[in-house]
Amino acid sequence: MGAFEERWRASLDDPEAFWLDAAQAIDWHTAPTRALEARPPFYRWFPDGELNVCANALDRHVDAGHGDRTALIYDSPVTGTVRSYSYTQLLDEVARFAGVLAGLGVGRGDRVVVYMPMVPEAAVAMLACARLGAVHSVVFGGFAPRELAVRIDDAAPVVVVSASCGIEGSRVLEYKPLLDKAMELAEHKPGKRVILQRPQAQAAMGPDDVDWAEAMATAEPAASVPVAATDPLYILYTSGTTGKPKGVVRDSGGYAVALAWTMANIYAVGPGETMFTASDVGWVVGHSYIVYAPLLVGATTILYEGKPVGTPDAGQFWRVAAEHGAKTMFTAPTAFRAIKKEDPKGALLGGYDLSGLRYLFLAGERLDPETYRWASDLLGIPVVDNWWQTETGWPICANPVGVEELPIKPGSPTVPMVGWDVRVVDGSGQPVPPNTDGAIVIKLPLAPGALPTLWNDDDRFIRSYLSAFKGYYLTGDGGRIDDDGYVYVMGRTDDVINVAGHRLSTGGMEEALASHPAVAECAVIGVADPLKGQVPRGLVVLKAGVDRPEEELRTELVALVRERIGAVASLRDVDVVAALPKTRSGKILRRTMRGIADGVEEPVPSTIESLDVLDALRPVLRRGD
Ligand code: COA
Ligand code: AMP
Fold first, then answer.
1. Ligand 1 lined by 277 (C-beta under 6 Å)
2. Within this chain, domains 3-306+386-479 and 500-624 share the same CATH topology
3. Ligand in closest contact with the CA of 410
4. Topology given in CATH for the domain delimited by 500-624
């Protein structure tokens, strides 16, 4: 047995011993005496422990004499800014912003919605909530007001923190009008909004709006508040199969312990070393590996405001990694496909010294072997695929390079990490033999840091994840495990799609299309795309008697999805069709249509109502082959 396999087995055979030992990486207000409390199907980690995650991320490094170390580097080619914060400086900002929030009535357990672009103040706001024991819910800046409003209504925040604008490539995107619109749409009305005025756009302020800089100028620093390990640190909404997002709850203690474990054993970044995660604080990768994990271990994190290409060129990732001496870089495969498209030979790498870069980690969507090979040939370092979800908070599968570098098999995110008991089952829940495709499930309990439940919705938590196979968590991904225990994740088995590393619900887009007065019914499917992995395609059937030019309708429908969900939905392709193929019970055959569009047609279900309808659709679906 290899060194890692031994640890993995120990974590499953004796989780109490394994995780209590791992918990020593964290400073506890009250150290836990137990690791796991099981009340199936609910599990809680470190039930009697108390800690503050912000104090672990900041104060303890300062207290240990490392206040001068760099905590965060903000690198923003879109504004021409590079700014560093030492641990002492970041702690000062965070403590004062916690004071601002406290002054606005935010206390332990209260929610704060953060709708921010990639600026350091986003991380400051998150950590300030953690300091007070408040629960942040960051909403990705690419989401439209309606999506923001749905999240505000569900989280019921006391305060919303936002900024005057984000910068998307060369465009200044004003956030305040989007926030104002969301406030109109939301039923829940937060008391105050704190707005960071950026020089690129000044937001018009109302009576309930507080200026970030003004409030900070007079703020008193707030002390950290110890909370139960099982208290929520944040809620992060993610797409389910319907239009209603799921509020993934993250606990405090389990998450802190798990993240600290990953930094040493997966990402191989320790105190004083630098991690460059090019993602967005609106996604789970950003929560875990831009903000919390690097700071928990006293490392330096880079917060990059820019794109992989076009801000201004495809060499920015190399520049940032070289200039700030990153040891580990982490992003989504789609970002590398974008760079490859612009600079196929990697010529822009030439000018930069990347000798300090030891590993590239890629996650968020399947890492196709071609992108894997391109990145690994170009950089000449291990390229580590890692598979996880908003729900899990950290990798289910990865290559534990901090323990030992396992051989890489392109197309596989390697093996399950400690605490994860991953299985592949058939439709009736029976385990399948190695190398056989099926549903990927995880035997309960999930590892520390994984969602204990959905916000205010235990029933949906059980319904969505735990009811398909008793005792197992349904990942929603399909795939297989080979003879060496390597896991292959092939894609979602539900109606969730992954567009440029952004997880989106086709159900949500269908709701938007269906709201158009001319639409009788519709379907949205995710089809393969060489750059974004998948892109959505809409198919609509018009109401009887609607007689309007198709082009005009298409434009309206595309605009509608953009307005309702946001630009990230990237729905550009809508076809008007005569009918949609269905089973006899009326279920639309999305999977069959997706197969046809991707050129991997599967046998048509025997319950299909009308083969004619499907035959008529084939030419439309195959367009773009
Ligand atoms: N705020 C506002 N708008 C945003 C946004 C944000 N944070 N992020 C994206 N958008 C907008 C874009 O401006 C674009 O708008 P447009 O249709 O008006 O041009 C739209 O949403 C689609 O954006 P995107 O999916 O990012 O496509 P792109 O063509 O602009 O860029 C990539 C393609 C591959 C470069 C880009 O998707 C990328 O960097 N992906 C990496 C994603 C990632 O890191 N995911 C995290 C998981 S690890
Ligand atoms: P998110 O919750 O946004 O992180 O998206 C999670 C989903 O992205 C997973 O359920 C997978 O479908 C997909 N995903 C993430 N990482 C990988 C990976 N390394 N390989 C394959 N799919 C991935």
1. no
2. no
3. 2
4. GMP Synthetase; Chain A, domain 3 (3.30.300)
Q: Which residue has the tokens 């000044």?
A: 202
pTM of the model: 0.96
| Section 92-108 average pLDDT | 98
Ligand 2 within 6 A of 477 CB? yes
Ligand 2 contacts CB of residue 476 (under 6 A): yes
> Cα of 501 to ligand 2 centre, how many Å?
8
* Percent of the chain whose pLDDT exceeds 70: 99
Inter-CA distances, 396 with 265, 366, 446, 492, Å: 13, 14, 10, 15
Task: Count CA atoms within 13 Å of residue 382 on its CB side.
Answer: 24
Evaluate: CB of 284 within 6 angstroms of ligand 2: yes
Residues 6+ apart with CB under 8 A from 407: none
CB distance 307 to ligand 1 below 6 Å: yes
Q: Is 186's C-beta closer than 6 angstroms to any atom of ligand 2?
A: no
Helices 550-564, 506-514: axis angle to 10 degrees equals 120
* Domain 3-306+386-479 top-level CATH class: alpha beta
CA of 110 to the centre of ligand 1 (A): 31
Q: Which helix (H) or strand (E) holds 183?
A: helix 176-185
- Tokens at 138, concatenated: 């960051």
Ligand 2 pocket member 238 (CB < 6 A): yes
User: Per residue in 439-494, pLDDT tens?
Assistant: 999 999 999 999 999 999 999 999 999 999 999 999 999 999 999 999 999 999 98
pLDDT at 337: 97
Of 254-258, 281-285, 431-435, 565-569, the range with the lowest mean pLDDT is 565-569
What's the chain's average pLDDT? 96
Q: What's the confidence (pLDDT) of residue 624?
A: 57
Distances in whole angstroms, Cα of residue 119 to Cα of each of 124, 141, 149:
9, 11, 22
- In angstroms, the CA 410 to CA 414 distance is 9
Q: Does 500 sit in the ligand 1 pocket, CB within 6 Å?
A: yes
Name the residue with the closest Cα to ligand 1, atom 32: 335
List phi, psi (to 5°) of 115. Answer: -125, 90
Q: Is the CB of 309 under 6 A from ligand 1?
A: yes
Q: Which tens digit of pLDDT belongs to each residue from 517-552?
A: 999 999 999 999 999 999 999 999 999 999 999 999
Mutation pick for ligand 1 pocket among 168, 284, 496 (CB with most ligand atoms within 8 Å) = 168
The answer on pLDDT for 601 being more than 70 is yes
Q: pLDDT grade, residue 584 (50/70/90)?
A: confident
Evaluate whether 408 touches 382 at the Cβ level (below 8 Å): yes
Closest CA to 1 of 529, 415, 573, 583: 415
pLDDT band at 625 (very low <50, low <70, confident <90, very high): very low
Mutation probe of ligand 1 site: the residue of 568, 570, 572 with most atoms within 8 A of C-beta: 568
CA-wise closest residue to 280 among 298, 303, 249: 303
Residue 163 Cβ inside 6 Å of ligand 1? The answer reads: no
Distance of CA 314 from the midpoint of ligand 1 (Å): 15
Measuring CA to CA, which residue among 65, 75, 69 is closest to residue 87? 69
Residues in contact with 23: Cβ distance below 8 Å, sequence separation at least 6, in sequence order: 31, 32, 35, 46, 49, 253, 257
Which residue ranges make up each domain of the chain? 3-306+386-479, 500-624
Spacing, Cα 91 to ligand 2 middle (Å): 33
Report the C-alpha gap between 22 and 567 in whole angstroms.
41
Residues 527/499, Cβ–Cβ less than 8 Å: no
